[in-house]
Structure formats: C-alpha cells, structure tokens
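Bump. Still looking for LacI family transcriptional regulator structure tokens.
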Amino acid sequence: MIVFKRMSALLLAGVTIMAAAGCGSGGDTTASAGGADDGKITMGFAQVGAESGWRTANTKSIQESAKAAGIELKFSDAQQKQENQIKAIRSYIQQKVDVIAFSPVVESGWDNVLKEAQTAKIPVILTDRAVDSADTSLYKTFLGSDFVEEGRKAGKWLVEEYKDSTDTVNIVELQGTTGSAPANDRKAGFAEVIGAESKFKVIASQTGDFTRAKGKEVMEAFLKSNPDIDVLYAHNDDMGLGAIEAIEGAGKVPGKDIKIITVDAVKDGMQALADGKINFIVECSPILGPQLMDLAKKVVAGEQVPARVLTEETTFTPEQAKAALPTRPY
Ligand code: AHR
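Sorry for the wait, here they are.
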C-alpha cells in the first residue's frame, strides 16, 4: 500500500508539473453536468465530522467562504464514518450538484464513488485529506497541508531538543484516525527524522482518533504500562489536551516530566503551549474555505487548476504562541 501511495504521489507530482505547463487534466470543458442552469454554483461538501477544534474551525471556514462567494452549500457531517461520507457523495450526485468537495476520513476505498461522480460529470475536489486512488483523474485537485512535512517538523524539534543528550528518549505516540492521511503521514514524517538516531525509541503508539476523550483514555493506558515516558507526540492538539489531563491525573507535570509535541495550533492548544504544558506545536491550517471556493469556481467553469494546492504553515514555541494568541482567529 505504501508503494501504491508513493506511485500515486509521483503521478500527482507529474500532473502538477503538466498543469503548470498548461497541459493538465483540469481543463475539461465538460466540467459540470449539475445543478439548475441559473448561473449559481451548488457545492456538495462531505465533512469528516466534528472530532476536533481544527475540524470545527474548518467547517466554519467552508460555510462562511461559500456564503461570501455566493456558492450554495449542501453540507453533511459523516461522524467520522466512511460509509456516511459515501452516502452523502451519492446523494450529491443524485441531486446533480455542480461540484463535490470532501475531506476523506480514510485514504482507501473511494474509487467506486469517485467513478460514479466522474460518470455523472460532476467534478470533485479533495480538501484537507488525500485518497490513495491510483487514478488521479478521479478528482480535479487536492487542497491541503503536507502532513509528512508536519511530521518531519515535529521530529526535527525533538532532535534539536535532545541534541546534547546520549540517553535513550522514550516516546509515546497518539496517532490520528487509523487509515487517515494525517495519521499515516504524520507518523511517517516523524519516524523518518527520528529514525536517524538510535537513542529515540517509540515505546508505544496507538490511535486516539483525533479526539480529546480518546487521547486522555489512551494516555492513561500508556502511563500505566510505561513508567518512563520522556516525550508524547500527539498527531493533533485535541489528543494532546486530553493526554495532559491524564498526565496531571497521574501526578506528573506536562511539558516538564513529559515533553509534548502536537499538531494543529488551534487556540486551546496554543494556550496550553503558552502555559508551558505543551512544548512545541506544528501548525496545520483549517482555513481552507476561501481557496476551496476559488478552485470550485474554476473547475465548474472548466478552467485549469493545479493538481495539488498546498497550504502555508509554520511552527510555534511557547514564546511564539504567547505573541500569536491575542490575534489567533481559531
Ligand atoms: O485532517 C486534519 C486533521 O483532522 C487535524 O489535524 C485534526 O485535528 C483533525 O481532526
């Protein structure tokens, strides 16, 4: 499956270059079969759920941007279940929307429904998360973060933090939803960087499903079976925040007894970072709405779009979090 994904990535990279050269797959003039012919674009959006602060901010961004762009939005919340997302996409196809956008809960298993959309000539835009389909013509573009790079940034901070130590560093990892792109890629990017030094040992790694409640529950189990945890790497802020409750419940000091790295940089995470309970956050931007609406207008008009649109992101130390918090929008 990893080989398959790498091939997909290579194909995608190829398509990006082709698109930049003006011969990409986005210039399909039969771009849309959907909707009433009133000039107004209707978008069907199949959201993952409401599992985290990041997701809430992402939903808000999509809803507000659709309104601002004059796009009629049909929105569904899949409650983290792939079958619900597939049902929602099929319903959008039946309703003949002009464009479908979705954030796939997991990477695999989308080919059939994407082929149905293609047969109905409804363009599809992936937002936030990728699919592992080998046929990249099944969607027009993929807008979102580079999750592998996010994992690498987390790993690089850790390597720097322990550069003067030769002792073993015991790490526990709270993974995102099993099979999801951010869980797979954040794990891979982190492992790639820390794997270069044998002192770093991931002694436990389990899913916390990107939720605060599960993050707490799994961290409690980690603490019971591993007395010597030095570092927690959580694939999102919410799981990290749940884990902080577990660490405090076990009589330890988060950020000191156990160093914590998370991903997202939502307000609650940034507050914990400013308070010294988290040590480092890798940003993942949920504000995808404005770019999504621009891309939607272009694909519906049959214009070319790049095969991959990356979001710009940074990282935060406690000092940087203190400076950013007063104006942090989410
Ligand atoms: O796909 C993005 C991830 O999904 C965010 O990092 C996480 O918080 C969310 O649930």
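Residues 147-284 form a domain with the Rossmann fold fold (CATH 3.40.50.2300).

Edit: fixed formatting.
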